Amino acid sequence: MDYMNYVNFQDVFSEWGWFIAATILILLEVLAPGVFFLFFAFAAFIVAGVSWAVDIDWQYELLLFSAIGFLSMYGGKRYFKKEREKYNDHPINDPMAEFIGNKVSLETAIVNNIGKVQIKGVHWTVNGPDAEKDTIVKIVGKTDDRFIVELI
Question: For the segment 37-51, what is each residue's pLDDT rounded down to a tens digit?
């Protein structure tokens, strides 16, 4: 049976069809994590506008939709990658990272490579060479829950 006789592609790919497709893609974007559907919703809106302004065949509309969708996805990926790299150096989710490079006084002596310091009212465990209490040390790194210090 030939189903192509029952489908008028010019009606499906009219400007209203593209607006409906864009709306559905935006709804999918709201329900799904990420920004994948947003790029194709943008492409569907552009094709709807072009379809409204210029009478073109549905094959060219699909081609335009595919091209704009993938180009916007590529451009968005590059943009978001630059934005993500811009904020990678900030210790937003790593409160210990902001203290690396600071000089602090030992609260307890470092014995067997373990001691304690106090920074901003919080006591932290440190690893480093053995040293007496009140010795000034420099924080040079961190592990999951400890600072690594060296003598100055």
Answer: 999 999 999 999 999
